[in-house]
User: Fold HTH-type transcriptional regulator NorG from Chitinophaga caseinilytica.
Amino acid sequence: MEHLYLQVADRIQAMIEKEVIRIGDKLPSVRSLSKEQGISMSTVFQAYYHLESKGFIEPRPKSGYYVRFSPRRLPELPSATRPVKRATDVNVSEMITEVFSHHGPDLLRFSTASPSEPLLPSAKLAKSMIAALRENNGGLIYENLQGNLPLRRQIARMSIQWGGSITEHDVVTTTGCMDALTLCLSATTQPGDVIALESPAYSGTFQLAESLGLKVLEVPTNPICGPDLEYLDKAIPKFKIKACVFVTNFSNPIGSCMPDKNKRELVRLMNKYDIPLIEDDIYADLYFGKLRPSSCKQYDRNGNVLLCNSFSKSLAPGYRVGWTVPGKYKERVLRLKLNHTISSATLPQAAIGHFLENGRYEHHMRNLRKMLHTQCLRYQQAVADYFPEDTCVTRPQGGYVLWLELNENINTIELYEQALRRKISFAPGRIFTLQDRYTNCMRISYSNPWSKAVDDGLKTLGKLAHQLMK
Amino acid sequence: MEHLYLQVADRIQAMIEKEVIRIGDKLPSVRSLSKEQGISMSTVFQAYYHLESKGFIEPRPKSGYYVRFSPRRLPELPSATRPVKRATDVNVSEMITEVFSHHGPDLLRFSTASPSEPLLPSAKLAKSMIAALRENNGGLIYENLQGNLPLRRQIARMSIQWGGSITEHDVVTTTGCMDALTLCLSATTQPGDVIALESPAYSGTFQLAESLGLKVLEVPTNPICGPDLEYLDKAIPKFKIKACVFVTNFSNPIGSCMPDKNKRELVRLMNKYDIPLIEDDIYADLYFGKLRPSSCKQYDRNGNVLLCNSFSKSLAPGYRVGWTVPGKYKERVLRLKLNHTISSATLPQAAIGHFLENGRYEHHMRNLRKMLHTQCLRYQQAVADYFPEDTCVTRPQGGYVLWLELNENINTIELYEQALRRKISFAPGRIFTLQDRYTNCMRISYSNPWSKAVDDGLKTLGKLAHQLMK
Assistant:
């Protein structure tokens, strides 16, 4: 006779397989299932542990157990990348602009790694904006060059979560994270310099490098633990790398999250060669696990790490409020900020400062993370269901995107063009490198809440991929 | 027996000299004075014409006659500038940051060429911000790359005033005018290129040039009609100038306003050498005369003029809303904007768009211009009263600043340091050039409404100048 907990587990597994309970659904609490079924709580616990070990369900902190996708259909992880080992002149194609300039209400966008409107606290942030208007006499006057003080204080306070110990004096606000990256790269490099990026890396960083006249070395990157540091250690002297720009947590598009020991090692390398790390930490707050992953900045004793972040992925892309903790480059960054924009807009900073001060951010982020995690699982499941069987897909532990590696006969630029005709967009892999690579890869954002339209859209993409294989 | 109109004029002149009627005061209307004094309206007219011809009073459109300063005490105009004729490596001193980083409520600031808070429509713009929140569902989402459409429409409509015939498709919004200049200079130059500026020119433009790795040629500039175009015609080929950045209307700090024929000639030169003119037109709406002066952009048929402007001098510096009409460089500017900031903040653009759509801008600007004109006259008078007799001062027809040329024994950096100890700041002439010039010059902003404190501050400056002469 089978153990009771196994009977319970099998029943739940069957319900999951028949999609009676669906990906992202919450399971009953241990207590309530125990009551309903007349079994002990420890039996329920055992059943849930069993299902968890089989990969069907997963616990979430302070919330309970949730259905995740079925492991037997779990696609493979993409392999670590092997970009060509030379620094490349940046010559980013029209394609990036093409991909990101398509708008329109009838377009189903899997292309943007930023929050969709339904995920955001529009009404509550509007209240903070109205408070900011009142408290700043309309916000008409130039804000302090370094940035709104209450906001900087809140940013400094939040650093506890990633192990930082910064004060408001260390923070410089910016017009979004791209502006932070622009200022930090301008402060640390000269035209003609070589910088290192992950491969694949965010297309915007390539474009920024191009506009600053920089060359880029793409570093092999593992979808789990990020850039290959042994490779980097050799590459820095060999290619005379002057700065690294890495997304250390939930990198875009590959989803890697550097383990703490890699972060520590990366900072050690920066100190060894005395070059700056521009740490783009924009996805770190969107973790699905128990705790926010740490940032390299935590290990920075010499001021070589320039941490960059913003509220664009978490709260309000349209507010254009970002910041940097630029370490020993602070004065240079401030000078450049003065030269390029004088100061950042007063009200958006003050409104977000107010939102944070009133504890609204924590509450919002808890919800956002839950929603994103659920969406991530549902999208992963749909990819497993609809795409060709040999499709590999990342299992990100945070952020907004899945990275798919399709059969090498599939050209995702072709797929993109066909999808666009059906009013669906995504980001083809080719735009995340300067080399002729990743042409069978694609990035899918799970930012849009799950819906019939999303399901149909992914089904269509899968069908098109099947057709292109032939 | 003297003419009746002369008796009337003499009486008014005496009242002005005794300061019964003060600088900036409005005179009675022709009709009311005619009634009160029992004289014909034509006599009053003759009296006013007479006083105008003597420089005591001046007419203002749709408003009447106002007292201006007395011509017998009118200081000389500064002479046309003669900067050294070579391109200079930009190496802008700490002084600029020093001058503009001094804040604090107890500092009397004559240093900033931007509106003081009392001049701005705080409550009405807050209403537009609240409307923008409502109409844009909180403004959380990225704005269109090119900029908020209603705002661009309003900007295009306003171009009628300067003879432009642009549409919303020609306009790109930016994070203030400095951002517009940054994008336009980045779009048209390479590091190492030489650009031409007025001399003296806005310190921020030198700093921007430095941060972009550009060299600067300073063009001799006349305080009335702007840059010397004959000189420029020779200098462009000689110094291989790649772009000009000129403030064509009410230039900062020298206050020149290029006549239409010079503007036309400047555009002709740009076409002759096929180089771009970046036209910083940020002060043009602050005219004291009947009409807004035209912009070079009006004469641009080839797309060589990149017009830059913002609402920072007229409405809300803290909103950081500017724009450019970049002619044939539009695609390049858009690409750079995408790379550096993705888009400009949603709500500030929408709020200003709403403010303009509802006709509030015109009304506000009429008041602002009147207030500034009055303040300009009062400050000019105070300079004439308090500063050494050989002080030359500009007579700007718009904008925020007076440019003073003091006795050549006076070093205005020394004056600045002494003034700062007395909690008064202004901008020493040296920061408006890369050369060792203008050390006996200073820029005084009349942005602060006239008050006892302002009067005392200018008196103190004058006293310090007298002391430094000895």
In short: Chain B touches chain A through 58 residues (CB under 8 Å).
